[in-house]
Amino acid sequence: MPVRRPARTALAVAAVALLSGTAAACGDTGELRGAGPTPTAVSPAKLWPDLRPASSPAYPYDVATRATVRGVVVPGDDIRAVDPVDVVEAELKAHPDDYGSKGAFHGTVDRMKECRPGGDRARCPLLKPYYRDLTGDGRADLTLGFRLYPTNQTAVRVYTVERHRLVQVLADNDAIIGVELAGRALIERSPADISGYEYRTTWLWDPGQRAMVFSRDEYLHVGDGRHGKTPSPSPSPAQSP
Fold first, then answer.
1. pTM for the model
2. Cα torsion for 25, 29, 32, 35, to the nearest 10°?
3. Closest by CA position to 203, among listed 66, 19, 58, 73
4. 3-state helix, strand, coil in the chain (%, to 5)
5. What is the pLDDT of residues 105-123, one digit of tens each?
6. For residue 112, what are the CA distances in angstroms to 66, 85, 138, 149, 178?
């Protein structure tokens, strides 16, 4: 995937230039001054106009995931009444190729037993659940995360309730630095292959597909090679922007 320079870099440079110009103007007599010659506008140049357009994407990318969760009841259509452990265990059972003895994430199955009462919570792969309205229907949705052992990946899942059923509307696995909820957007931060940079992927609700869809992928400079820590979002009730 080609690296794309984020637009915020250009905006930051423009902001610095604007502030510098304002500072230079302080203390003058207020008279009009010439700004110098105006550069000639140059229209965009279209490269390789005869190039045959591609008929299919170079890399497959799942922009939306939607599936009804089997075997999990939603009492009173209240997603807060659903046990997150039951939700994760339902996924483990539904995908034996991933979580079976020969699956890439087989270590998660044994550790999920520690999430039950009396288990060792330090070994439980399930992370703290969060509740926020991400679909815009005025009701809280469920955001879950759990570690995918023995890899260093983390599963990020979002669930909503439709017609008395629990529906998964986002499923993504990645090496995660942090996850943020901003309004109705879910943002994942992942390490990049260059020191001092990270990937940020944004997912948004799409009413047409009835799922959280891939919206933006940014490649950002974060400093001196050390990934910054972002505080975990606190649990919040259903809310509208």
1. 0.71
2. -30
3. 66
4. 20, 30, 50
5. 999 999 999 999 999 999 9
6. 23, 8, 32, 11, 22
